[in-house]
Amino acid sequence: MNQPAISPTLDTLFQRTLMRQPHAPALLDPLNKARVTGHQPRRLSYAEADTAIEALSAYFVESGLPANSVIAIQLPNTVEFVLTVLAAHRAGLVVAVLPLLWRHAELTAALNRTAARAIVTMSRVDGVNYADLAMHAAAEAFSIRHVCGFGTDLPEGMAALDDVLARPPGTTRAVIQDGRKAAMISFDVTAEGFRPVPRPHFSLIAGGLAMSLEADIRQGATVMTAFTPMSFAGLASSLAVWLLSGGTLALHHPYENDVLEQQINEHECEVLIAPAQLALRLGDSDLAARMPSLRNVVGLWRAPEQVAASEAWIAPHAPLTDVYLFGEAGLFGARRGEDGMPVPVMPGPHGAPREQSGSSIAGDILLTPKGTLGLRGPMVPIAAYAPPQPVGDTLIAQPPRDYVDTGYAARLDRPSGALCITAPPSGIMAVGGYRFLSNDLQEWARRLGQGALLTALPDRLSGHRLAGRAQDNARAREALNELGLNPLMVEAFRDRSGPA
Known about the structure:
By secondary structure, the chain is of the alpha/beta class. It is 28% helix and 27% strand. A hairpin with a 4-residue loop joins β19 (360-367) and β20. α5 crosses α6. InterPro entries: AMP-dep_synth/lig_dom, ANL_N_sf. This is AMP-dependent synthetase. One of its GO terms (molecular function) is medium-chain fatty acid-CoA ligase activity.
């Protein structure tokens, strides 16, 4: 009897490289990790990483977390994040990634929406006490049974995972490794509001393949990622790309340019994956002389409507690949040509690599009847973005939709037939990787008090930035904290004598 083909999981990819080269370097921590988290930087081989993964996985099993339950993770871009994700998958758990910009309100909503059974965090990140944030959010999430943390000075009742890593692995659990099983849940904001987006392993791997094949990342490469991992694009560009290449993953917690440059040179990184605006700034600073080991640069655009107007890439020794991100819906990549300018993106199926005839189809790009950009393909979670059932028509079956409407306004260029992305989704703001409804600004401004102003200004680096004024700036920050907003997100809020 023929056995059906089973697609690989992320842990399957890890164990393939582990079997082939157990003593090869696998994970490299940020050089400034002591400042970011209080931990000393770690360098792990595949065998050492496997031992740590096995210990964490055993702890999750021994804690009584059932297979297929959800474990929430809010961690910085360090070795602990990678180990926790792979350990959760090895224990048969589904990972829900929580952005570091989130505070109490968003954390509680996400934990309750996903019925998470556990949450893993770091004691402190950049001076912010994330352990306390996790404990307070868990207190309002009835499904949470375990709160775990890395680092020192953890609150009472929080399990210390550093101690788990220091002891031999314990109980294991047999888990069927099938790429069709749920792997992660990320979170998006659409016109309909806050939306959990689940994905199987093969969807994450498809996103990683689309990037690595388009950028022509070689097997065994040392990959430097300076992109926050708490999203689909973050996981695909770091974890999936690394496991597909079977090389070394160097991590950088965004952003310290001098430290990033030092890491790239010290580890002789061949690939840099970073926000596109950061990559373009590095490209303007004599990249060949300052970082000679680089051979590929992957720039991730959170604001894909800005790609067409971006500057030319002037570092031919390390070609730039533009990756267009559409929230949590999906992505596609396009490697720039010899002139360094963005290449036209045509509607229809696109392969990976894009220009190679006969390449595997990575996805499909289309223009919807509403004049917006639609995506479909193996990485696109169509069911998660299904439109709501019309009121009063609950007994009438809706026509199936085989694509996700990203909400990005788009049109076709008449002379070339290329797709032009012209504007972000209506009513959605983005500050860094944090997306929210523009209507929320009115509520936030109301809480600031009489005479206060809070607005989102266009910004080429982050999409938008928050700026404002208030008669009592201390009270304004206190009010924003009461709403659960991270101070990193509102750092642009300051006293002004005139309008923002």
